[in-house]
Amino acid sequence: MQKVKLQPIYTESNTTAAFQLNWSLTLSMREKLLVPASIFESLKRATESDAVRILEQKQMDDLRLQFLLSTRPHVSPADVVRSVKGRLQYLMRAIKPKIFQGTYNLLSVGEANNDCLNAYVAKQPQRHPMADLRVQKQIELLQFFDEAANLKEPQFSNHGRYLHNLHIVIENRDHLHNVHEDVLRKLRSMIIRSCAQKQHLLARIGLVSNHMHLLLGCNNVCSPQSVALALMNNMAYALGMKAISEFSYYVGTFGPYDRNAIRRALASSN
Asked: Which of 8, 10, 119, 198 could form a Cys-Cys staple with 232, CB 3.0–4.6 A?
């Protein structure tokens, strides 16, 4: 008998996202070259059509360009590099047919850095305490932390170095509280198993009765949207294909540096 393929409950069309996705991108040129300011202005307009917004940019020296970027959830880190690098190369074609080396450095950044966000997610049970001390203890024991999941060290692709760290928040449907230990354990186990199968680095789960925070590192071809939707659908599958989460989620980027640190670095290069 042929197996029936299960259809996802949460999809791009029926699920909304709140997001703050920022990246620091450094591109290296083959030889010393000054990029005209007019080219940067044209680049800003061009990348907008790829859902990649250039917030700030700077030619750091004769060989390096740095950008602070924001993106939408369907854009992967690989898409980010392809957009900025490809469109800039096209705009510079009359000046120099091939200006870039093969390598790049793309780092996810956020409002808070890795250490601050880890501390915040670790304290979720204390931030949302239960009246019943027995339930409170149960939830505290269900927290997950993997010290071996190093989200500070960039990974490498064939063409460069990248860091793709995501902070995902998923809320229960109708914001209902769930204190059933067996259900919470199933969800926790499914998240751990799903991340392992996808080769995501799951560092922490901050699990409370009506929502959860996840901190994980992903590869450069996964979009934040695809990661969040896959996790939500796997959680639904764990409980018999029930829509247990809201049809919405939050996803943000983070890394060893926050956005202000990147802005200071750009400003100091003047």
From this structure: 10
**What six digits make up the tokens of 110?**
């956020």
Q: Cα dihedral sign for 49, 52, 56, 58? A: negative
Half-sphere exposure of 87 (CA within 13 A, CB side): 21
Write out pLDDT tens, residues 110-167. 999 999 999 999 999 999 999 999 999 999 999 999 999 999 999 988 779 999 999 9
Question: Residue 2: pLDDT above 60?
Answer: no
CA distance 176 to 156: 41
Rg (CA), the chain: 21
Q: Where are the alpha helices (DSSP H) in the chain?
A: 37-48, 77-91, 114-122, 124-127, 133-141, 181-198, 224-238, 259-268
> Rounded to the nearest 5 degrees, what angle is found at the Cα of 249, between the Cα atoms of 142 and 117?
55
- Mind listing the domains of the chain with CATH numbers? 22-108 (3.30.70.1290), 111-254 (3.30.70.1290)
Chain position carrying tokens 């080396």: 101
What are the structure tokens assigned to 244, written together? Answer: 């247990």
The residue behind tokens 């030889």 is: 31
Mean pLDDT of 201-229: 97
Pairing of strands 201-207, 155-156: unpaired
Length of the chain: 270
Q: What is residue 177's predicted lDDT score, i.e. its pLDDT?
A: 94
**Sign (positive or negative) of CA dihedral 207, 211, 214, 218:** positive
